[in-house]
Automatic annotation (TrEMBL):
Residues that span the membrane, as ranges: 12-35, 67-88, 100-124, 144-168, 197-218, 224-244, 251-271, 283-302
InterPro entries, A to Z: ABC_transp_permease, BCAA_transport_permease
Organism: Piscinibacterium candidicorallinum
Compartments where found: Cell membrane
Main location, first listed in the record: membrane
Pfam families listed in its UniProt record: BPD_transp_2
Keyword tRNA processing listed: no
UniProtKB keywords: Amino-acid transport, Cell inner membrane, Cell membrane, Membrane, Transmembrane, Transmembrane helix, Transport
Superkingdom of origin organism: Bacteria
Stated name of the protein: Branched-chain amino acid ABC transporter permease
Protein topology in the membrane: Multi-pass membrane protein
Length: 309
């Protein structure tokens, strides 16, 4: 039971990151019906940008506290990722809005490869060690152990996700986003500038990816040019699991996927008699994706919508 509780905590940490990334996927899909497969690489750019800024600050002020370094790195990563995602939308996706759906999908894969290549040129092929920004000594709550970094991941993710829900549900921009997602043409007749809404959606998604990238790098103490591929793919799985296009579904899907993966990694050796180790944990995410697509393609919280004539 103690092992199970500990794996649940680890799953919440992992699921919180997946949920943050999945929100970027689901927001863009909800408005444009577009899968932005370059989203995971925006996360990578955010993590590496934050790391570069942190190293720069440490070079000038070595005694800067870890909390301050994390805040400074995140503050630098967010605008960089927002500008990058807005640029991608303007150059790569906007000209293809009326094209067949396969065209923007292929373009998104191409953008992903370009971002990885540029990052490899700028930051190199090697893995970069992320300095330990928060204390490593785990805090104990009964049988549960959790590090300050893991606790920060859960708290920050919860605050960011709650703030996004408030923005979508309670603000003028949120109403415009929901109207555009429902029917862009009617929203335009009501005075909603769909282009501005789409740009804002890409910018918000990039900000979430930047935060997720910093948290991911801080939790695993590493960053490299291809680090966004697997988390991005799993976050897409989480978005599909929860119901892509549904904000609450992205959060639920991310948390469920994190729990399934963490618990599976903790027990896979026992289940398989030692044949498989914890490094096979990635299979759980994609097994879940296959099961969902077979039995409920619309996802847990997705709605079954008939095709329009």
């Amino acid at each position: 039971m103690e092992v199970l509780i500990q794996q649940i905590v680890n799953g919440l940490v992992l699921g919180s990151v997946y949920a943050l990334i999945a929100l970027g996927y689901t927001m863009v899909y909800g408005i444009l019906q577009l899968i932005n497969f370059a989203h995971g690489d925006v996360l990578m750019v955010g993590a590496l940008t934050a790391l570069s800024v942190i190293k720069l600050v440490v070079g000038f002020a070595p005694d800067t506290p870890g909390w301050t370094l994390m805040l400074i790195g995140t503050g630098a990563a967010i605008p960089v990722c927002m500008l990058l995602n807005v640029f991608i939308e303007r150059v790569a996706y906007r000209p293809l809005r009326n094209a067949p759906r396969l065209a923007p999908l292929i373009t998104a894969i191409g953008i992903s490869i370009i971002l990885q290549t540029v990052a490899m040129i700028v930051w190199g092929r090697s893995f970069h060690v992320v300095p330990q920004l928060l204390p490593a000594e785990p805090m104990k709550f009964g049988p549960i152990q959790i590090t300050p970094t893991q606790l920060t991941v859960i708290i920050v993710s919860a605050v960011v996700m709650f703030s996004l829900v408030l923005l979508v549900e309670k603000t003028k921009l949120g109403r415009a986003m929901r109207a555009t997602a429902e029917n862009p043409r009617v929203a335009g007749l009501m005075g909603v500038d769909s282009n501005r809404v789409i740009v804002a959606t890409f910018a918000l998604g990039a900000a979430l990816a930047a935060v997720a990238g910093v948290l991911f790098a801080a939790n695993y103490y590493t960053a490299h040019f291809a680090m966004g591929f697997m988390p991005g793919l799993k976050a897409f799985t989480a978005a599909v699991l929860g119901g892509i296009g549904n904000i609450y579904g992205a959060v639920v899907g991310g948390l469920i996927l994190g729990l399934v993966e963490s618990i599976g990694a903790g027990y896979i050796g026992t289940w398989t008699g030692g044949v498989l180790g914890s490094h096979y944990q990635d299979i759980f995410a994609f097994v879940v994706l296959i099961i969902v697509l077979v039995f409920r393609p619309s996802g847990i919280m997705g709605e079954r919508v008939a095709d329009r004539a």
